[in-house]
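Reproducibility note. Readers wishing to regenerate the assembly model reported in the main text can use the exact inputs given here. Chain order matters: entities are listed in the order in which they were concatenated for prediction.
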Amino acid sequence: MYSEKVMDHFTNPRNMGELENPSGVGTVGNAKCGDIMRIYLDIDENHVIQDCKFKTFGCGAAVATSSMATELVKGKTIEEALTVTNKAVMEALDGLPPVKVHCSLLAEEAIHAALWDYAKKN
Amino acid sequence: MYSEKVMDHFTNPRNMGELENPSGVGTVGNAKCGDIMRIYLDIDENHVIQDCKFKTFGCGAAVATSSMATELVKGKTIEEALTVTNKAVMEALDGLPPVKVHCSLLAEEAIHAALWDYAKKN
Ligand code: FES
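Running the prediction on these inputs yields the following structure tokens for the assembly.
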């Protein structure tokens, strides 16, 4: 049912946790399942994402997509990070079953919310 | 949204993992969200559950209810364990939001499946 990459990022998630003094924080909820996701971004003066962490109450698919999404946006500029869609994250994970696509949206929405939080502060 | 006990059992789950040579294993899936749950039971010759572990791909509510459910069935006889309903588990956790009630069913169903697996083998 789940690809090897999904199981790898679920059982060994990258960038799970919090950042102290983040440049931006985004928290989003998923009405479909009631789950929540929070993303912390550390952005330097050149608008490059230096670090990125996530916390979630969501399922394994939410954990795996967030883990992959944080890997994909790290080192990218804000403009580049905005182009990392949940479709790109799912492709990097070799796909997700249709019932789990909504879980992959949590990471994308939380990253956008964190970038928006940063933009408002700067 | 979530009680302190839910957050405690989510962030510090009890009995997460696998058992080698379990007396019974139950694996169930949730059609609503596509999540899976597996429970391992170690049952002695007096039909007492000596140990119990769980693995899940489910959300925080699934993790918290499984953690609490494994605590509740440990040390119980098979007959007693069958009376541990998901309602009892939710009460022990000080409740769950309505959208998450279906997640709490995973643990109950997996424990029943593991007891059934044990019964078939013995
Ligand atoms: S079911 Fe809620 S995030 Fe996957």
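We highlight two features of this model. Residues A 30, 33, 35, 58-59, 61-62, 103, 106; B 33, 59 surround FE2/S2 (inorganic) cluster (CB under 6 Å). The longest strand of chain A covers residues 35-43.
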